[in-house]
Structure formats: C-alpha cells, structure tokens
Amino acid sequence: GQQVQQSPASLVLQEGENAELQCNFSTSLNSMQWFYQRPGGSLVSLFYNPSGTKHSGRLTSTTVIKERRSSLHISSSQTTDSGTYLCAFLNYGSSGNKLIFGIGTLLSVKP
Amino acid sequence: EAGVTQSPRYAVLQEGQAVSFWCDPISGHDTLYWYQQPRDQGPQLLVYFRDEAVIDNSQLPSDRFSAVRPKGTNSTLKIQSAKQGDTATYLCASSTTGGVETLYFGSGTRLTVL
C-alpha cells in the first residue's frame, strides 16, 4: 500500500490566502523532506525536517515523529507558489538509504 | 556551481524502440540516483550508484532497463523495447555520501511512448 499519504490532492487559493499541506506516513519515521516541483521542472528541497518545526520565509514545516506526520504551511500565498509539493521519508535499508515519495499536492494560486 | 544536467529534455518513441537518457551530476557528488515519475505520481527510485557501483537496483525492470556509471561521474539509463507504460519523466539526482537530505535533482527527461 501507499507508504506516504498526502492531502489534499489539489488546492486552489486566491493570492494572499494561507495553505496547509499534510503528509502522513504508514511506517516508522526516521527523517523526512518536503520538495517543490514547478510544472515541467526539477524538484527543489524545501525542508529537511526529521522532527520539530522549521521556518523558511513564508514556509513552515512541522514534523511529529511519533505521530508519523508532517505539515507544510504556506502563508500569504503568491502566484509563484503554484506547483506540486511532495513529501518524502528516508527509508534505511540493507541495500542503502532512499527517499520514498508521496504523490504530491498540486497547488494553484490565482491572482 | 553547475547543477545536475540531463538530456534530452524530451523524447517521443513508438513502442518497441530503444532510448537512452544521460545525466551529469554535480561535480564531487559520489552518489547518483535515477527516479521514474509517472504523470500525477511521486518519483519512484529505479536505481542508485555510489561512484561506479550499483547500490540498489531492485526497482529497475531488469529485462528492459539498464543503467551504468562507468567512471563514477556521468550516468546513462537505457530502455530497450519501450512500452506505453514507460511513459513518465525520468529524473536524475545526485548527493554526497550519506547526504540524501541534500539531494539535487535535474530537470528530467519527459518520455512519451506511443
């Protein structure tokens, strides 16, 4: 089954509104990351956040390890925030460490 | 500093044709990853290398897919006899050893198999 569940699947905002994106993990969490992907573009790491709260400009990530969840808050959204937001957890395995991604949340910010 | 470079940017094939994707990682990054991202899905790891060695290729469809990194720098991912189900964006990423938290992605190659 899906190890990483993201919600909502899509979100439409008016510029200036806030957004809250959720990520839930079905397995024990060692660490996780949030990525941003512009349509047709590469992924950019927003946060490496194994636990607690981190801030970067208008973005805030909060990870609660024991509850296997993480959230990404976007305040005062801008049209340039439009794109897909992906979360991923780090899977430690005998064959090496790898990121397991969710399907993503597609965000559209209207002017 | 140059980022991860991939080529081609787009590829369109008929079923049964072969295609190769090329990746040039960030200089000094010893770990290189290939991900497959079908439309409206998250990236899924196909294979990754540390230097020239394959660390994990368990998700690589071995009968048609192959990947090499002969000198521990550039890498090539090849699909023999492509199928419509291979339609996806193929992403290359690189990092330093143990630095999966600082993973840098290329812009990807968007493959369409007709």
Describe the SSE topology.
The complex is a heterodimer of chains A (111) and B (114).
Chain A: E1 4-7, E2 10-14, E3 19-25, E4 32-37, E5 43-48, E6 52-56, E7 59-64, E8 69-74, E9 83-93, E10 96-101, E11 105-110
Parallel strand pairs in A: 2-11
Antiparallel strand pairs in A: 1-3, 3-8, 4-5, 4-9, 6-7, 7-8, 9-10, 9-11
Chain B: E1 5-7, E2 10-13, E3 19-24, E4 31-37, E5 44-50, E6 53-56, E7 65-68, E8 75-79, E9 88-95, E10 104-105, E11 109-113
Parallel strand pairs in B: 2-11
Antiparallel strand pairs in B: 1-3, 3-8, 4-5, 4-9, 5-6, 7-8, 9-10, 9-11
Structural class by SSE content of chain B: mainly beta
**How would you state the average pLDDT of chain B, rounded?**
91
CATH architecture of chain A: Sandwich
Strand content of chain B: over 45%
Count up the helices of chain B: 0
Instruction: Give a short account of the largest sheet of chain B.
Output: 7 strands, mixed
Question: What is the distance, rounded to the nearest whole angstrom, between the alpha carbons of the first and last residues of chain B?
Answer: 37 Å
In N-to-C order, the SSE pattern of chain A is: EEEEEEEEEEE
Number of strands of chain B: 11
Report the helical percentage of chain A: under 10%
Shape of chain B: globular
**CATH architectural grouping of chain B:** Sandwich
Shape assignment of chain A: globular
* Order of helical and strand elements of chain B: EEEEEEEEEEE
Query: What's the name of the CATH homologous superfamily of chain B?
Result: Immunoglobulins
Helix content of chain B: under 10%
- The CATH fourth-level homologous superfamily of chain A: Immunoglobulins
Question: Could you please describe the fold and organization of this structure?
Answer:
The complex is a heterodimer of chains A (111) and B (114). Helices cover 0% and strands 61% of the residues of chain A. Chain A has one domain: Immunoglobulins (Immunoglobulin-like, Sandwich). Chain A has strands at residues 4-7, 10-14, 19-25, 32-37, 43-48, 52-56, 59-64, 69-74, 83-93, 96-101, 105-110. In chain A, strands 2, 4, 5, 9, 10 and 11 form a six-stranded mixed sheet that branches. In chain A, strands 1-3-8-7-6 form a five-stranded antiparallel sheet, with no helix packed on it. Chain B has one domain (5-113): Immunoglobulins (Immunoglobulin-like), CATH 2.60.40. Chain B is built from no helices and eleven strands. Chain B has strands at residues 5-7, 10-13, 19-24, 31-37, 44-50, 53-56, 65-68, 75-79, 88-95, 104-105, 109-113. In chain B, 35% of the residues are buried. The A-B interface holds A 4, 31, 33, 40-45, 48, 86, 88, 90, 93, 95-104 and B 3-4, 33, 40-45, 48, 50, 55-56, 58, 91, 93, 98, 100-108, 110.
